[in-house]
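Supplementary Methods, section 5.1.

A reviewer requested that the exact input to the structure prediction be made available. We therefore reproduce it here, unchanged from the version used in the analyses.
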Amino acid sequence: MMPRSFHLVITLIPLLFSTTAGYSEEEPNILFILADDLGWADPGCYNHPLFETPNLDQLAADGMRFTQAYAAAPICSASRAAILTGNSTARNRFEFVVKDEVGYQPMQTPLRAPAYTVDLSLDAITIPESIAQTGRETAFFGKWHLNAHYGRYLGWSPTHGPTRQGFQHAREDFGSHPYGYWKDKKLRSFDKNIESGTFPEDSMTQEAIQFLKEDHTRPFFLMVSHFYVHDPNHTRLRWLYDHYLNQLPTTRENRERVAHYGAMVTTLDHHVGELLKGLEEAGKADSTLVVFTSDNGGHPNYAGNAPLRGSKWNLYEGGIRVPFIARWPGHIPDNTINRTPICSTDLFPTFAGITGADHSTAEDGISLLPLFKDPEAPLRERQFVWHFPYYHPESNYELAPEEIGINDGYTTKTKPQSAIRVGDWKLIRFHENDNEELYDLSSDLTESSDLADTRPDIRKRLSKQLTDYLEEANARFATANPDSKE
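The structure derived from this sequence is encoded token-by-token as follows.
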């Protein structure tokens, strides 16, 4: 077994709500599973040609798979804040990853990004806070990444951690992810004690399963936030690494890196399968809505993201389009594909619609319940807005390539930008020079044909809508950099 990472178990006092001896099957539990950096095209059910994800494939077969689901941000912390609040990164004024303390990006660039947001505000109303008011139990296991690093990288803050944002039960634990052993160089190798075809125990997953199997007098909301498949890109499973390596041509560049990543994708899938099995063994599978998605697009060094352009950190489709699967027996039809564009900010009003919770503070999402029942259900025309006023990478930015393509295999330069999608049209604005690109996603999924000059009418309309939204949301912007030598 792999070494157990440092953990902290926090269980708050019981709810101050009266409960009955049981609850109706018409009041479903909610199991929300969030992956980290899993790209839209990574699962097998999204047609990846190599990676094997039998449990996610089965989840999709038993429920509904969305093909145009979006993360609210192309980066971790900002995306998670948007999910929990139902508000965009612009409205949250939370657009980047948290740091140890407030400060600015240490880079020589024409614009200076806004100061880091290091904590999700305690004034923000979150999904678990709202749901807890209905008397339901709320629990969280896994990656938080919404407070300044406390004690160590990703450490939970006692003042801004999950239990201060509405979760009554929470556990801090790296599980079997490389985060738990990466500092020990001796462990950066294959584990000879793991037999072929088996996986090491993931303590974080096991804690979540234990919660699933407990007797609950009221329905629960459980969020399992995996660290997989975020880097370090490494597996200790020799058999799984070899399985993927042997399928890759010997001439393929970075094949070892892809083999490690494929093993991480399949390991994530295995742990998702354990959760679903635990739900079944607890007798709660038929009375539980399960939602699976990712916090942002895939890392360009590993995931590739083809056929989508771009990757984590930028606002091309590869950075923000994510897998999204929902299963709810008796409510969501089996083996259904839903092509309606949706966003992770829709989760708050969706979960609120099921639980009767208040979602009046969630301004940037709508309930997906009509789509769960009927994938062709008509929805009002809506706009999706993304706002990323930062530069990336923060280290060696000047050495990163400029052009963002498809399956680059490396991290490229991302500059302050915003984007809007209305219907099939998507506009991206780059704030250094206010240049705008326009794409018709119905015929150009790869975003390779910029129509900004040939469709000025649509560009003008979307540009105004983007500006109006950012002003209404009181968005922060990158401004002239007083330290820039450019």
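Residues 1-25 have pLDDT under 50 and may be disordered. These observations are discussed further in the main text.
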